[in-house]
Protein backbone atom coordinates (compact mmCIF):
# COMPACT_ATOMS: atom_id res chain seq x y z
CA UNK A 1 0.00 0.00 0.00
CA UNK A 2 1.24 3.48 -0.85
CA UNK A 3 2.63 5.46 2.09
CA UNK A 4 -0.08 8.01 3.03
CA UNK A 5 2.57 10.43 4.39
CA UNK A 6 4.50 12.42 1.80
CA UNK A 7 6.99 15.28 1.99
CA UNK A 8 8.12 18.01 -0.39
CA UNK A 9 10.84 20.57 0.30
CA UNK A 10 10.56 23.94 -1.45
CA UNK A 11 13.64 25.59 -2.92
CA UNK A 12 13.94 27.94 0.05
CA UNK A 13 13.93 25.04 2.53
CA UNK A 14 10.33 25.12 3.74
CA UNK A 15 9.02 21.58 4.19
CA UNK A 16 5.49 20.46 3.34
CA UNK A 17 4.27 17.18 4.88
CA UNK A 18 0.85 15.65 4.31
CA UNK A 19 -0.98 12.61 5.64
CA UNK A 20 -3.71 11.39 3.30
CA UNK A 21 -6.77 10.04 5.18
CA UNK A 22 -9.26 9.18 2.40
CA UNK A 23 -11.90 7.86 4.83
CA UNK A 24 -12.63 11.34 6.30
CA UNK A 25 -14.16 14.51 4.83
CA UNK A 26 -12.16 17.10 6.76
CA UNK A 27 -8.64 18.51 6.45
CA UNK A 28 -6.51 19.97 9.25
CA UNK A 29 -3.65 22.24 8.24
CA UNK A 30 -0.89 23.83 10.30
CA UNK A 31 1.87 26.30 9.53
CA UNK A 32 4.55 25.58 12.10
CA UNK A 33 7.58 27.67 13.03
CA UNK A 34 10.25 26.07 15.18
CA UNK A 35 10.59 29.24 17.24
CA UNK A 36 9.11 29.89 20.65
CA UNK A 37 9.57 31.59 23.98
CA UNK A 38 12.89 29.90 24.72
CA UNK A 39 14.40 31.57 21.64
CA UNK A 40 13.62 35.10 22.86
CA UNK A 41 16.18 37.36 24.53
CA UNK A 42 15.01 38.39 28.00
CA UNK A 43 13.99 41.86 26.84
CA UNK A 44 11.82 40.29 24.13
CA UNK A 45 10.15 37.67 26.32
CA UNK A 46 6.52 37.49 25.22
CA UNK A 47 7.13 38.69 21.68
CA UNK A 48 6.55 35.34 19.94
CA UNK A 49 3.14 35.10 21.60
CA UNK A 50 2.34 38.73 20.76
CA UNK A 51 3.27 38.11 17.11
CA UNK A 52 0.95 35.10 17.05
CA UNK A 53 -1.93 37.31 18.17
CA UNK A 54 -1.12 40.10 15.72
CA UNK A 55 -1.02 37.80 12.70
CA UNK A 56 -4.82 37.50 12.91
CA UNK A 57 -5.36 41.28 13.05
CA UNK A 58 -5.26 42.13 9.38
CA UNK A 59 -3.35 41.86 6.11
CA UNK A 60 -3.14 44.03 3.03
CA UNK A 61 -6.39 42.55 1.68
CA UNK A 62 -8.26 41.38 4.81
CA UNK A 63 -8.97 43.11 8.11
CA UNK A 64 -9.45 41.17 11.34
CA UNK A 65 -13.22 40.90 10.87
CA UNK A 66 -12.89 39.62 7.32
CA UNK A 67 -10.46 36.91 8.44
CA UNK A 68 -12.94 35.71 11.05
CA UNK A 69 -15.96 36.06 8.76
CA UNK A 70 -14.35 34.10 5.91
CA UNK A 71 -13.53 31.21 8.22
CA UNK A 72 -17.04 31.22 9.66
CA UNK A 73 -18.55 31.32 6.18
CA UNK A 74 -16.98 27.99 5.28
CA UNK A 75 -17.85 26.35 8.60
CA UNK A 76 -14.22 26.04 9.59
CA UNK A 77 -12.07 27.17 12.45
CA UNK A 78 -8.66 28.76 12.66
CA UNK A 79 -6.48 29.41 15.67
CA UNK A 80 -2.88 29.53 16.83
CA UNK A 81 -0.70 28.75 19.82
CA UNK A 82 2.78 29.58 21.05
CA UNK A 83 4.92 27.22 23.06
CA UNK A 84 8.45 27.20 24.39
CA UNK A 85 9.90 25.98 21.09
CA UNK A 86 7.18 26.24 18.43
CA UNK A 87 4.50 28.57 17.11
CA UNK A 88 1.63 27.13 15.08
CA UNK A 89 -1.12 28.67 12.95
CA UNK A 90 -3.75 26.06 12.18
CA UNK A 91 -7.23 25.48 10.84
CA UNK A 92 -9.71 22.76 10.00
CA UNK A 93 -12.30 22.69 7.19
CA UNK A 94 -14.23 20.35 4.92
CA UNK A 95 -12.07 19.07 2.08
CA UNK A 96 -13.98 21.22 -0.46
CA UNK A 97 -12.88 24.37 1.40
CA UNK A 98 -9.18 23.54 1.60
CA UNK A 99 -8.23 26.11 -1.09
CA UNK A 100 -9.88 28.86 0.96
CA UNK A 101 -8.16 27.75 4.16
CA UNK A 102 -4.72 27.69 2.52
CA UNK A 103 -5.36 31.16 1.08
CA UNK A 104 -6.33 32.59 4.46
CA UNK A 105 -3.48 30.97 6.44
CA UNK A 106 -0.85 31.90 3.86
CA UNK A 107 -2.20 35.48 3.72
CA UNK A 108 -2.10 36.08 7.46
CA UNK A 109 1.26 34.35 7.81
CA UNK A 110 2.97 36.20 4.96
CA UNK A 111 1.15 39.53 4.64
CA UNK A 112 0.13 40.73 8.10
CA UNK A 113 0.51 44.51 8.42
CA UNK A 114 0.61 45.00 12.23
CA UNK A 115 -1.39 48.23 12.28
CA UNK A 116 -0.51 50.38 15.34
CA UNK A 117 -4.15 50.72 16.43
CA UNK A 118 -4.63 46.93 16.31
CA UNK A 119 -1.35 46.53 18.19
CA UNK A 120 -2.60 48.72 21.04
CA UNK A 121 -5.91 46.85 21.28
CA UNK A 122 -4.26 43.44 21.22
CA UNK A 123 -1.72 44.42 23.86
CA UNK A 124 -4.64 45.14 26.19
CA UNK A 125 -6.06 41.68 25.40
CA UNK A 126 -2.75 39.96 26.24
CA UNK A 127 -2.41 41.93 29.47
CA UNK A 128 -5.80 40.50 30.43
CA UNK A 129 -4.54 37.03 29.45
CA UNK A 130 -1.59 37.48 31.82
CA UNK A 131 -4.00 38.55 34.55
CA UNK A 132 -6.16 35.51 33.88
CA UNK A 133 -3.11 33.24 34.21
CA UNK A 134 -2.12 34.89 37.48
CA UNK A 135 -5.68 34.45 38.80
CA UNK A 136 -5.60 30.71 38.02
CA UNK A 137 -3.69 29.00 40.86
CA UNK A 138 -2.87 25.82 38.93
CA UNK A 139 -1.52 27.87 35.98
CA UNK A 140 0.44 30.11 38.32
CA UNK A 141 2.05 27.27 40.27
CA UNK A 142 3.18 25.56 37.05
CA UNK A 143 4.87 28.80 35.98
CA UNK A 144 6.54 29.01 39.39
CA UNK A 145 7.71 25.40 38.91
CA UNK A 146 9.45 26.30 35.67
CA UNK A 147 11.21 29.13 37.47
CA UNK A 148 12.18 26.86 40.37
CA UNK A 149 13.58 24.18 38.04
CA UNK A 150 15.11 26.17 35.18
CA UNK A 151 15.98 29.41 37.00
CA UNK A 152 17.03 32.26 34.71
CA UNK A 153 17.08 30.02 31.63
CA UNK A 154 14.41 30.94 29.01
CA UNK A 155 12.56 27.68 29.78
CA UNK A 156 11.76 29.16 33.17
CA UNK A 157 9.92 32.16 31.71
CA UNK A 158 6.29 32.67 30.80
CA UNK A 159 5.31 32.28 27.15
CA UNK A 160 3.09 35.34 27.66
CA UNK A 161 5.94 37.58 28.81
CA UNK A 162 5.65 40.25 31.50
CA UNK A 163 3.45 43.36 31.56
CA UNK A 164 6.58 45.54 31.58
CA UNK A 165 7.88 43.85 28.44
CA UNK A 166 4.55 44.14 26.64
CA UNK A 167 4.35 47.85 27.43
CA UNK A 168 7.83 48.35 25.96
CA UNK A 169 7.08 46.64 22.63
CA UNK A 170 6.15 48.54 19.46
CA UNK A 171 4.27 47.29 16.41
CA UNK A 172 7.20 47.73 14.03
CA UNK A 173 9.56 45.83 16.36
CA UNK A 174 7.21 42.83 16.36
CA UNK A 175 7.08 42.83 12.57
CA UNK A 176 10.87 43.04 12.37
CA UNK A 177 11.24 40.07 14.74
CA UNK A 178 8.72 38.06 12.70
CA UNK A 179 10.83 38.56 9.59
CA UNK A 180 14.01 37.70 11.49
CA UNK A 181 12.70 34.63 13.33
CA UNK A 182 10.39 33.05 10.75
CA UNK A 183 13.19 31.50 8.69
CA UNK A 184 12.40 28.96 5.93
CA UNK A 185 14.60 26.34 7.59
CA UNK A 186 12.35 26.53 10.66
CA UNK A 187 9.00 26.45 8.84
CA UNK A 188 7.05 23.24 8.34
CA UNK A 189 3.59 23.11 6.75
CA UNK A 190 1.56 20.03 7.59
CA UNK A 191 -1.89 18.81 6.61
CA UNK A 192 -3.87 15.67 7.35
CA UNK A 193 -7.20 14.51 6.03
CA UNK A 194 -8.96 14.07 2.70
CA UNK A 195 -6.39 15.67 0.39
CA UNK A 196 -3.92 14.98 -2.37
CA UNK A 197 -0.29 15.81 -1.62
CA UNK A 198 0.57 17.26 -5.02
CA UNK A 199 -2.57 19.39 -5.06
CA UNK A 200 -1.77 20.70 -1.57
CA UNK A 201 1.79 21.60 -2.61
CA UNK A 202 0.35 23.46 -5.60
CA UNK A 203 -1.95 25.41 -3.27
CA UNK A 204 0.69 26.35 -0.70
CA UNK A 205 4.04 26.28 -2.50
CA UNK A 206 3.79 29.42 -4.69
CA UNK A 207 2.93 31.65 -1.71
CA UNK A 208 5.47 30.23 0.74
CA UNK A 209 8.31 30.25 -1.77
CA UNK A 210 8.28 34.03 -1.22
CA UNK A 211 9.92 33.60 2.20
CA UNK A 212 13.60 34.49 1.84
CA UNK A 213 16.29 32.90 3.99
CA UNK A 214 18.07 35.16 6.45
CA UNK A 215 20.76 34.90 9.12
CA UNK A 216 20.50 31.74 11.19
CA UNK A 217 19.10 32.11 14.68
CA UNK A 218 21.36 31.48 17.70
CA UNK A 219 21.69 27.87 18.78
CA UNK A 220 19.65 26.85 21.80
CA UNK A 221 21.64 26.41 25.01
CA UNK A 222 20.58 23.60 27.39
CA UNK A 223 19.71 24.69 30.93
CA UNK A 224 21.99 24.03 33.88
CA UNK A 225 19.34 23.26 36.45
CA UNK A 226 19.75 24.22 40.09
CA UNK A 227 16.40 23.19 41.59
CA UNK A 228 15.08 25.44 44.34
CA UNK A 229 12.03 26.25 46.45
CA UNK A 230 9.52 28.89 45.35
CA UNK A 231 6.69 29.86 47.73
CA UNK A 232 4.02 32.46 47.09
CA UNK A 233 1.50 33.30 49.79
CA UNK A 234 -2.11 33.80 48.73
CA UNK A 235 -5.36 33.66 50.64
CA UNK A 236 -6.84 30.62 48.93
CA UNK A 237 -8.90 27.66 50.05
CA UNK A 238 -6.20 25.25 48.86
CA UNK A 239 -2.45 25.00 48.69
CA UNK A 240 -1.28 24.23 45.15
CA UNK A 241 2.04 22.43 44.84
CA UNK A 242 4.32 21.18 42.11
CA UNK A 243 7.38 19.04 42.70
CA UNK A 244 9.64 18.62 39.65
CA UNK A 245 12.98 17.26 38.43
CA UNK A 246 14.84 17.36 35.15
CA UNK A 247 13.43 15.03 32.48
CA UNK A 248 14.25 13.70 29.03
CA UNK A 249 14.32 15.51 25.70
CA UNK A 250 11.96 14.74 22.85
CA UNK A 251 14.49 12.68 20.88
CA UNK A 252 16.00 10.72 23.77
CA UNK A 253 15.78 7.00 22.91
CA UNK A 254 14.50 6.31 26.44
CA UNK A 255 11.41 8.49 25.91
CA UNK A 256 9.11 5.46 25.69
CA UNK A 257 10.11 4.26 29.16
CA UNK A 258 9.83 7.87 30.33
CA UNK A 259 6.25 8.10 29.10
CA UNK A 260 5.25 4.83 30.72
CA UNK A 261 6.89 5.78 34.00
CA UNK A 262 4.85 8.98 34.01
CA UNK A 263 1.60 7.07 33.37
CA UNK A 264 2.31 4.65 36.22
CA UNK A 265 3.26 7.45 38.61
CA UNK A 266 0.30 9.76 38.03
CA UNK A 267 -0.82 9.83 34.41
CA UNK A 268 -4.31 8.33 34.72
CA UNK A 269 -6.98 7.28 37.22
CA UNK A 270 -5.37 3.92 38.03
CA UNK A 271 -1.96 5.50 38.61
CA UNK A 272 -0.19 5.27 41.96
CA UNK A 273 -0.61 8.92 42.92
CA UNK A 274 -4.27 9.14 41.94
CA UNK A 275 -5.07 6.03 43.92
CA UNK A 276 -2.92 6.86 46.96
CA UNK A 277 -3.66 10.59 47.31
CA UNK A 278 -7.23 10.86 46.02
CA UNK A 279 -8.95 7.49 46.12
CA UNK A 280 -7.55 6.04 49.35
CA UNK A 281 -7.20 9.23 51.42
CA UNK A 282 -9.40 11.86 49.74
CA UNK A 283 -6.68 14.49 50.06
CA UNK A 284 -7.08 16.06 46.61
CA UNK A 285 -9.56 16.44 43.83
CA UNK A 286 -6.77 17.02 41.32
CA UNK A 287 -3.46 15.15 41.53
CA UNK A 288 -1.36 14.05 38.58
CA UNK A 289 2.14 13.74 37.19
CA UNK A 290 3.45 15.41 34.06
CA UNK A 291 6.44 14.88 31.77
CA UNK A 292 6.89 17.57 29.08
CA UNK A 293 9.83 17.21 26.70
CA UNK A 294 11.73 19.88 24.79
CA UNK A 295 14.38 19.45 22.11
CA UNK A 296 17.25 18.89 24.56
CA UNK A 297 15.72 18.48 28.02
CA UNK A 298 12.47 17.98 29.86
CA UNK A 299 10.80 17.92 33.24
CA UNK A 300 9.01 15.30 35.25
CA UNK A 301 6.84 16.41 38.12
CA UNK A 302 3.74 16.11 40.25
CA UNK A 303 0.89 18.56 40.85
CA UNK A 304 -1.69 18.50 43.64
CA UNK A 305 -4.18 20.92 45.16
CA UNK A 306 -4.88 20.16 48.85
CA UNK A 307 -6.16 21.62 52.07
CA UNK A 308 -3.37 23.62 53.78
CA UNK A 309 -3.48 21.27 56.77
CA UNK A 310 -2.61 18.35 54.48
CA UNK A 311 0.38 19.90 52.72
CA UNK A 312 3.07 17.97 54.60
CA UNK A 313 1.16 14.70 54.44
CA UNK A 314 0.69 15.07 50.68
CA UNK A 315 4.35 15.88 50.05
CA UNK A 316 5.41 12.89 52.12
CA UNK A 317 3.07 10.62 50.14
CA UNK A 318 4.44 11.95 46.85
CA UNK A 319 8.01 11.30 47.98
CA UNK A 320 6.99 7.83 49.12
CA UNK A 321 5.75 7.02 45.62
CA UNK A 322 8.88 8.47 44.03
CA UNK A 323 10.98 6.29 46.32
CA UNK A 324 8.96 3.19 45.40
CA UNK A 325 9.74 3.79 41.73
CA UNK A 326 13.46 3.91 42.57
CA UNK A 327 13.55 0.98 44.97
CA UNK A 328 11.50 -1.70 43.25
CA UNK A 329 10.50 -2.63 39.74
CA UNK A 330 6.95 -1.80 38.72
CA UNK A 331 4.72 -4.84 38.52
CA UNK A 332 4.08 -6.70 35.28
CA UNK A 333 0.40 -5.79 35.59
CA UNK A 334 1.14 -2.06 36.01
CA UNK A 335 3.47 -2.03 33.03
CA UNK A 336 1.00 -3.91 30.87
CA UNK A 337 -1.79 -1.53 31.83
CA UNK A 338 0.35 1.53 31.10
CA UNK A 339 1.33 0.13 27.72
CA UNK A 340 -2.30 -0.54 26.80
CA UNK A 341 -3.24 2.97 27.90
CA UNK A 342 -0.53 4.62 25.79
CA UNK A 343 -1.12 2.37 22.79
CA UNK A 344 -4.86 2.97 22.94
CA UNK A 345 -4.39 6.72 23.02
CA UNK A 346 -1.86 6.54 20.19
CA UNK A 347 -4.06 4.44 17.92
CA UNK A 348 -7.25 6.40 18.64
CA UNK A 349 -5.43 9.65 17.88
CA UNK A 350 -4.81 8.31 14.39
CA UNK A 351 -8.52 8.83 13.68
CA UNK A 352 -8.22 12.60 14.27
CA UNK A 353 -7.04 14.87 11.46
CA UNK A 354 -5.93 17.45 14.05
CA UNK A 355 -3.78 14.90 15.87
CA UNK A 356 -2.27 13.56 12.66
CA UNK A 357 -1.45 17.08 11.47
CA UNK A 358 0.28 17.74 14.79
CA UNK A 359 2.07 14.38 14.74
CA UNK A 360 3.40 15.04 11.22
CA UNK A 361 4.86 18.35 12.40
CA UNK A 362 6.45 16.93 15.54
CA UNK A 363 8.04 14.07 13.62
CA UNK A 364 9.45 16.41 10.97
CA UNK A 365 10.74 18.99 13.45
CA UNK A 366 12.23 16.49 15.90
CA UNK A 367 13.35 13.65 13.61
CA UNK A 368 13.27 14.99 10.06
CA UNK A 369 11.19 12.05 8.91
CA UNK A 370 7.84 10.30 9.20
CA UNK A 371 7.64 7.88 12.12
CA UNK A 372 4.84 5.34 11.60
CA UNK A 373 2.57 4.60 14.54
CA UNK A 374 3.66 0.96 14.22
CA UNK A 375 7.25 2.01 14.97
CA UNK A 376 6.22 3.85 18.13
CA UNK A 377 3.98 0.94 19.18
CA UNK A 378 6.87 -1.51 18.79
CA UNK A 379 9.13 0.66 20.94
CA UNK A 380 6.43 1.01 23.61
CA UNK A 381 5.93 -2.75 23.72
CA UNK A 382 9.69 -3.25 24.12
CA UNK A 383 9.99 -1.23 27.36
CA UNK A 384 10.97 -3.35 30.36
CA UNK A 385 10.48 -3.03 34.10
CA UNK A 386 14.24 -2.79 34.47
CA UNK A 387 14.41 0.22 32.15
CA UNK A 388 11.80 2.10 34.17
CA UNK A 389 13.66 1.33 37.41
CA UNK A 390 16.92 2.57 35.93
CA UNK A 391 15.28 5.74 34.62
CA UNK A 392 13.60 6.48 37.95
CA UNK A 393 16.94 6.23 39.73
CA UNK A 394 18.51 8.62 37.24
CA UNK A 395 15.77 11.27 37.19
CA UNK A 396 14.02 11.21 40.57
CA UNK A 397 17.01 12.03 42.74
CA UNK A 398 17.11 15.11 45.00
CA UNK A 399 17.43 18.01 44.91
CA UNK A 400 14.07 18.65 43.32
CA UNK A 401 12.30 21.89 42.49
CA UNK A 402 9.25 22.69 44.61
CA UNK A 403 6.69 25.44 43.99
CA UNK A 404 3.93 26.11 46.50
CA UNK A 405 1.12 28.64 46.14
CA UNK A 406 -1.47 29.38 48.80
CA UNK A 407 -1.83 30.07 52.55
CA UNK A 408 1.55 28.71 53.67
CA UNK A 409 2.24 29.61 57.29
CA UNK A 410 5.89 28.53 57.49
CA UNK A 411 7.69 28.60 54.11
CA UNK A 412 11.04 27.71 55.69
CA UNK A 413 9.64 24.36 56.82
CA UNK A 414 9.31 23.34 53.15
CA UNK A 415 13.06 23.54 52.55
CA UNK A 416 13.44 19.94 53.68
CA UNK A 417 11.48 18.80 50.63
CA UNK A 418 13.92 20.12 48.00
Automatic annotation (TrEMBL):
**Which GO molecular function entries does the Swiss-Prot or TrEMBL record give?**
metal ion binding
Similarity annotation: Belongs to the peptidase M16 family.
Q: What is this protein called?
A: Predicted Zn-dependent peptidase
Pfam families, alphabetically?
Answer: Peptidase_M16, Peptidase_M16_C
Residue intervals passing through the bilayer: none
The chain positions of domain Peptidase M16 N-terminal read 15-161
Question: Where is the Peptidase M16 C-terminal domain positioned along the sequence?
Answer: 169-340
Amino acid sequence: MENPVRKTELQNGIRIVTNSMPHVRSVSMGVWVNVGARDEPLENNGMCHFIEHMVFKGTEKRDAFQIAAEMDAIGGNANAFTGMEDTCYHGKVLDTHLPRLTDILSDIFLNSVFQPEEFIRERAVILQEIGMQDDSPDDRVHLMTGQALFGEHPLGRSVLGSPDNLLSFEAHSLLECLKEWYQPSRIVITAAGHLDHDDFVSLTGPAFEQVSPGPELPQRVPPKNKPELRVEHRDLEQVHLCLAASGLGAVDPRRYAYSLMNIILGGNMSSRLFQEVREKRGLAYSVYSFAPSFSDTGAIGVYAGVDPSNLDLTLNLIYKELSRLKEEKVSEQELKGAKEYVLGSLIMSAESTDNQMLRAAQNEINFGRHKPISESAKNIEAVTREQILELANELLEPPMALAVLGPVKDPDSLKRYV
